[in-house]
Amino acid sequence: MTTPTTSASTTVAQTVWREIRLSWLFIRVDRWTTVFPATCFVVAATVHARLPLGEAAVAAALGAVYFWLFIYEHTLANQLVGVEEDRLNKPFRPLVTGESTVRGARLRLIAVRITFPVYGYCLGVLKWALMWQILSLLQHEYGWGRHWLGRNLYAGIGVIAQLMAAWEIVTALTPDAWRWIVTLTITVTFLMSVQDLRDLHGDRAVRRSTMPLVFGELPTRIFLCAGFAVGPVFIHHFLMAPAGPHWWAVATDVFLCGLSLLLAVRVLLLRGPEHDQRSYRLVEQWYTFALAASIYTLR
Predict the structure, then answer these.
(1) pLDDT per residue as tens digits for the range 113-124
(2) d(CA 282, CA 276)
(3) Which topology term describes how it sits in the membrane (predicted)?
(4) Could you report how far apart the first and last alpha carbons of the chain are, in Å?
């Protein structure tokens, strides 16, 4: 026999599970730029701080929840202002498929905007949580997202908010960690326009001034090709070489540099929405792999 208490518990569990599942549908496309890589940097900080395995696991779990909320706020705000565009570019998103209503997404955004800084305060990274929220407001409410420079600055400065929080969840910032953060911030700021190559039709339809639409698709591809081609020099000098001539550092250096050169070729020669989507996914995975490497290069 089902008791009222059992029924209430089941209802609560179902509601919680539905919200977790729905949040995943909102953030799943962006997991390679936030939850996965930033949690890797949390783990790198635990290794550097020599935390016991149990404490390290707790820190990684707390960090993963923080970055889930981090990107959930972004995706809710981003998708609320881009429903019509998503019907053209990304018809799988929850507001287009009907998995969530606009009103429901707005209520969830309010809840996340309250929960996220409170959680950040509990982890000791409130200033980075607030920095991300300010950036999100600039991007989605005050027009940064409609201009190519604002879009790139949002991504680049967002790396600072993300990785500073990841490290300081565990321990105080070190010069080596700061070197990684600066290098990745500059890289993302200059090369994030690769995401705009795949959405030319939708961006033109909503009159968004992305880099390919402002400067032309071919000049943008040449710029990005050059950026990815010289990327291995910076990867080696600032990220891998300081770890010393260990075999694992050399292997990672070769892998990341090879992926960067592959991207240089792809953005110039392989065009069209499907190819450009794959190129952007490779950029996201490069970012995750780089931060996974920080676990043993920053120890």
Answers:
(1) 999 999 999 999
(2) 10
(3) Multi-pass membrane protein
(4) 56
Asked if the model's pLDDT at residue 1 lies above 70, the reply is: no
Using alpha carbons, select from 183, 213, 216, 201 the residue that is nearest to residue 287.
183
Q: Which of 38, 35, 293 is nearest to 163 (CA)?
A: 38
Give the tokens for residue 169.
Answer: 């969840």
Question: What does the H/E/C string look like for 71-134?
Answer: HHHHHHHHHHCCHHHHHHHCCCCHHHHCCCCHHHHHHHHHHHHHHHHHHHHHHCCHHHHHHHHH
Going by C-alpha positions, the residue among 156, 230, 137, 143 that lies closest to residue 195 is: 156
Angle at 16 between CA 13 and CA 17, to 5 degrees: 85
Say what the pLDDT of residue 10 is.
83
Task: State how far the alpha carbon of 162 is from the alpha carbons of 18, 128, 297, in Å.
Answer: 27, 7, 19
Which percentage of the chain shows pLDDT scores above 90? 72
Q: How much of the chain, in percent, has pLDDT values that exceed 70?
A: 98
Q: Say yes or no to pLDDT of 212 above 60.
A: yes
Dihedral over alpha carbons 202, 149, 293, 21 (to 10 degrees): -40
Q: Which two tokens stand for residue 280?
A: 């952007």
Please give the Cα distance from 208 to 214 (Å, whole number): 9
- Two structure tokens written together for 292: 């996974």
Q: What is the pLDDT of residues 132-162, one digit of tens each?
A: 999 999 999 888 888 889 999 999 999 999 9
Give the C-alpha separation, 262 to 18, whole Å. Answer: 39
Calculate the CA 152 to chain-centre distance: 13
Mean pLDDT across 285-293: 94
Q: Residue 291's closest CA among 200, 150, 188?
A: 188
Alpha-carbon distance of 24 to 69, in angstroms, equals 11
